[in-house]
C-alpha cells in the first residue's frame, strides 16, 4: 500500500504538491486498515490531471503538521495590507461607522449588506479596469470561481435584479462593508478597507446626485471637516461621450477610453496617447480630448461643446441644486474627473483634500446601464463609495481625531471573597436597568480597583461589603465628585 502511494506521489504529482504528500506518506506508519483521506487523494488526482474535476474539489488541502511539530511559531502580524482592530482602533472605527450610519438614516436610507465572498463572474467586466487586476479570486472546494468583493456596487446591482418587481422604486440603500483589493500600498490605500456606500436606484434626475453629495457634506461637517479642507471635483461622462461621438467613437469603446483617461495623473502623457491610439481613436480626437480635459469652468466647456447637450444641462442643474442644498462652496467643475470604473454613464464626482496630499477621499457617480450588463433590465442608478482609510489620514493631518477612551458607567466589586456572588447579583440588577457594568471577577485590593476605574473612565464605584449587604445595601462612590453614599439595591439607579 505504502509503496503504491509513493509511486503515485512521485510519478504523477506536480512539484508543488509532491512534498506535501511525500511528507504525509513518510510520516505514516500505516495501520492495517489505513487509508489516505479522500480529500487528499482528490486533491492529488485533480492537480495531477491539470485541475477541473468533480464535486469533491480540486483544492489542495492545507499542509499537515508533521508528528514532531507540536506547535508552529506564527507571524503575529496580520497579512500584508490588512489590519487588526484592537479596542482603541475599534473605538475609532465604530465612531466613524456610526457617523456613516447616522448620516444615511438622516437622509432616509435603509441599510443593506451582501456577502464578502461573491462569484468571480460578478466582477468580470470588459474594459481594462485596475480593479479587475486587483481581484482576490480563487476556486472554492466545490470548483466554483469566487472572489472577495473589491467594491459593493456589483453586489447591490445583483440584489436589485434579484428583488425585481417586488421592491418599489426609488430605493435608497446604504451599506458599510469590507472590500478587498490587491493594491500597491500607499498612504490611505490598503489591501482590505471598509467602504460606506449610499445608492439611489430608480431616479434618473440629477436631484439624486445632488442629494448624495449633500449627504457626504453633512458627514464632513459632523466630523469637523470644512469646505476649506475638502472639495468635490465634478464632471459628467457625457462630456467625453458627446465629444467622442463627433469623432465616431462607439459606445462600446467608451468605457475603455474613460479608464485610460483616468490614469492621466498616474502615467506619462505619451503613454496615455499611445493607449488611446490603440483603441482606434484618431490623433485629432485625442488632441481635442486632452484639451477638453483641462477645462475647469462650465462656461469654457459650453464654448467647446455648445449649450444644447445633456452634459452641460446636467452639470448646470447640479450646480444650481448645490446652491439650494447649501454646499456650493464645496464643489467645482473639473473635466479631468472621469473615474476608473467602466460602468459610470453620467455625473461623476470625487472628494479630494485641498492640500493635495492624499488620494481620493470618496467617489461616485451615475451608472444607468450596469444592470443590463448582468442580464437585468436597466434602472437608473447612482451612488458613491467612501473609504475608511483616507479620511482617518485627513483627520490626523487636521488634528481632528476624537479622543475615545473606554467608557463603563459602573465598576462593581466585592470587598470580600465570599461576596463575589452578591456582586454578581448587583451587576445583573444594574445591567437590567440598562447600566454598563465592569464586574471585578477576582479578589483584588481596592487600590487596584481604583486604578481600573480610572482606566475605563468609570463614573461610579459600587462596593459590596458584608455589613451593607446584610441590610440589602451597597456603597456607591461617584468618582468625579468623590461623593459617597449607601443605597438599597432596589433603589440603585
Ligand atoms: P472607488 O472609487 O473604487 O469606487 O472607491 C470608492 C472609495 O473607496 C475611494 O474613494 C476610497 O475612499 C475607497 N477605497 C477604494 N480602494 C481603496 C483601498 N484599496 N484602500 C482604501 N480605501 C479604498 C467604488 O468602489 C464604487 N463602487 C463606488 C460607488 C458606489 N459608485 C456608485 N456607488
From TrEMBL:
- Residues in Aminoacyl-transfer RNA synthetases class-II family profile domain copies: 81-402
List each coiled-coil range: none
Instruction: Indicate the secretion signal residues.
Output: none
Which Gene Ontology terms cover its molecular function?
A: ligase activity
Question: Which reaction is recorded as catalysed by this protein?
Answer: tRNA(His) + L-histidine + ATP = L-histidyl-tRNA(His) + AMP + diphosphate + H(+)
Top-level taxon of the source organism: Eukaryota
**Keywords for this entry?**
Ligase, Nucleotide-binding
Entry keyword annotation includes Ligase: yes
Enzyme Commission code(s) on record: 6.1.1.21
Query: Record's NCBIfam families?
Result: hisS
Question: Could you say which protein family the record assigns here?
Answer: Belongs to the class-II aminoacyl-tRNA synthetase family.
- Protein name listed in UniProt: histidine--tRNA ligase
Question: What species does this protein belong to?
Answer: Camelina sativa (False flax)
Q: Which gene encodes it?
A: LOC104790844
Amino acid at each position: 500500500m505504502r509503496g503504491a502511494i509513493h509511486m503515485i506521489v512521485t510519478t504523477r504529482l506536480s512539484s508543488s504538491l509532491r512534498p506535501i504528500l511525500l511528507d504525509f506518506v513518510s510520516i505514516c506508519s500505516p495501520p492495517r486498515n489505513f487509508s489516505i483521506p479522500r480529500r487528499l487523494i482528490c486533491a492529488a488526482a485533480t492537480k495531477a490531471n491539470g485541475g477541473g474535476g468533480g464535486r469533491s474539489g480540486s483544492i489542495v488541502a492545507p499542509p499537515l503538521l508533521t508528528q514532531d511539530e507540536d506547535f508552529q511559531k506564527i507571524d503575529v502580524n496580520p497579512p500584508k495590507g490588512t489590519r487588526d482592530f484592537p479596542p482603541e482602533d475599534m473605538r475609532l472605527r465604530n465612531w466613524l461607522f456610526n457617523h456613516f450610519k447616522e448620516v444615511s438614516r438622516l437622509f432616509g436610507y435603509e441599510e443593506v449588506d451582501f456577502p464578502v465572498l461573491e462569484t468571480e463572474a460578478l466582477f468580470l467586466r470588459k474594459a481594462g479596469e485596475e480593479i479587475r487586476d486587483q481581484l482576490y479570486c480563487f476556486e472554492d472546494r466545490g470548483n466554483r470561481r469566487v472572489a472577495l468583493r473589491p467594491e459593493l456596487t456589483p453586489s447591490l446591482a445583483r440584489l436589485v435584479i434579484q428583488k425585481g418587481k417586488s421592491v418599489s422604486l426609488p430605493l435608497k440603500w446604504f451599506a458599510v462593508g469590507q472590500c478587498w483589493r490587491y493594491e500597491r500600498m500607499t498612504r490611505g490605500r490598503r489591501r482590505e478597507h471598509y467602504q460606506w456606500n449610499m445608492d439611489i436606484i430608480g431616479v434618473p434626475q440629477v436631484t439624486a446626485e445632488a442629494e448624495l453629495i449633500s449627504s457626504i457634506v453633512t458627514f464632513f461637517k459632523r466630523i469637523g471637516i470644512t469646505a476649506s479642507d475638502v472639495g468635490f471635483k465634478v464632471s459628467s461622462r457625457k462630456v467625453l461621450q458627446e465629444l467622442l461621438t463627433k469623432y465616431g467613437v462607439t459606445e462600446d469603446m467608451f468605457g475603455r477610453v474613460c479608464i485610460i483617461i483616468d490614469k492621466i495623473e498616474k502615467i506619462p502623457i505619451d503613454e496615455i496617447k499611445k493607449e488611446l491610439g490603440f483603441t482606434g481613436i484618431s490623433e485629432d480626437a485625442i488632441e481635442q480630448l486632452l484639451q477638453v480635459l483641462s477645462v475647469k469652468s462650465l462656461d469654457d466647456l459650453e464654448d467647446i461643446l455648445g449649450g444644447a447637450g445633456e452634459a452641460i444641462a446636467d452639470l448646470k442643474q447640479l450646480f444650481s441644486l448645490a446652491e439650494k442644498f447649501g454646499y456650493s462652496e464645496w464643489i467645482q467643475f473639473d473635466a479631468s474627473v472621469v473615474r476608473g470604473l467602466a460602468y459610470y454613464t453620467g455625473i461623476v464626482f470625487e472628494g479630494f483634500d485641498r492640500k493635495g496630499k492624499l488620494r481620493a477621499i470618496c467617489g461616485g457617480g451615475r451608472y444607468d446601464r450596469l444592470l443590463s450588463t448582468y442580464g437585468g433590465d436597466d434602472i437608473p442608478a447612482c451612488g458613491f463609495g467612501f473609504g475608511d482609510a483616507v479620511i482617518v489620514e485627513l483627520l490626523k493631518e487636521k488634528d481632528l481625531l476624537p479622543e475615545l477612551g473606554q467608557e463603563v458607567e459602573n465598576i462593581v466589586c466585592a470587598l470580600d471573597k465570599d461576596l463575589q456572588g452578591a456582586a454578581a447579583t448587583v451587576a445583573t440588577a444594574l445591567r437590567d436597568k440598562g447600566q454598563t457594568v465592569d464586574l471585578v471577577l477576582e479578589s483584588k485590593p481596592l487600590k487596584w480597583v481604583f486604578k481600573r476605574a480610572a482606566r475605563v473612565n468609570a463614573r461610579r464605584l459600587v462596593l459590596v461589603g458584608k455589613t451593607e449587604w446584610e441590610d440589602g445595601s451597597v456603597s456607591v462612590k461617584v468618582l468625579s465628585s468623590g461623593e459617597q453614599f449607601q443605597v438599597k439595591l432596589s433603589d440603585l439607579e
